[in-house]
Design goal:
The chain is mainly beta and 247 residues long. The chain has a domain of 162 residues. 14% of the residues lie in helices and 39% in strands. It is built from three helices and 14 strands. The strands form four sheets. It has a five-stranded mixed β-sheet, with no helix packed on it. A four-stranded antiparallel β-sheet has the order 1-10-9-2. A three-stranded antiparallel β-sheet has the order 3-8-6. The longest helix has 18 residues. It is globular.
């Protein structure tokens, strides 16, 4: 409440002319033994959250805050019990599943010059990969009002978020008022599973290549994050490195 940070709050129904990044993610996926009714409720929760984000403008110097824009997902606002990760397990919770929207926003922002200033990940890897499209480790954890996704516009451009729920996919676009000077390729490196005693861990590194849009020349590689998480399943079909801790 006392912050002097200028947070993005204005929206426009008209889309800005330049598309920076487009992405969509499947709404319903079988994840482990989780109940599908939680995922159907998640779709309803995502519709409510998208209505708060769609059309949002992020002007130069402004910061986007997921918690400030979406707010507290309460039953009073129409949110239903959806899938929420707690200690690495899927459990029903009011507003569960809206982190899928944060995941989509973060992925699009990684393909732009916007600066991520706050992001938390789940400390567990709860489910085996099943139709994974994005690299593991680029998702977000959202817990109102202290675990947030925030990113700042340090450019002279104005950006806009366009999001919505389609028939099968959560759909998003990051748009801008002018073309960007660079494009980005985001990828994972050094992916591995580790076994420490009776526990399994997963680690990787998320990198991105910055590319000059005009020439197609790769300008540099940037390390975004190193991920390490406790695995809640037994990895199969992948190499596992045994790690012996010093006694």
């Amino acid at each position: 409440m006392r912050s002097t940070t200028p947070y993005a709050a204005d929206r426009s129904a008209a889309g800005l002319p330049r598309r920076i990044k487009q992405h969509r993610s499947l709404l319903l996926r079988q994840l482990g033994e989780s109940e599908m009714w939680m995922q159907h409720n998640k779709v309803l929760n995502l519709k409510l959250a998208c209505a708060q984000v769609d059309g949002l403008l992020i002007r130069p110097g402004e910061t986007f805050s997921f918690n400030k824009v979406v707010g507290n997902a309460t039953r009073h606002k129409g949110y239903r019990p959806g899938m929420r990760l707690s200690n690495g397990e899927a459990k029903p919770g009011i507003g569960g599943g809206i982190c899928q929207l944060a995941n989509l926003l973060h992925w699009m922002v990684l393909h732009s010059p916007l600066t991520v200033t706050e992001r938390s990940t789940h400390s567990f890897d709860p489910f085996p990969d099943n139709g994974r499209v994005l690299p593991w480790g680029v998702g977000c954890s959202i817990v109102y009002n202290y675990v947030d996704l925030q990113f700042r516009n340090d450019t002279e451009q104005t950006f806009q978020l366009k999001v919505g729920v389609g028939a099968r996919y959560l759909e998003g676009e990051l748009r801008a008022d002018r073309p960007a000077a660079t494009t980005y390729r985001v990828f994972a490196k050094d992916e591995r599973f580790l076994r420490v005693g009776a526990q399994y861990f997963r680690r990787n590194e998320i990198w991105r290549t910055v590319i000059d849009r005009r020439t197609g020349t790769a300008l540099c590689d940037e390390l975004i994050r190193e991920n390490v998480a406790l695995v809640k399943y037994i990895p199969t079909g992948v190499p596992v490195l045994d790690v012996v801790l010093p006694t």
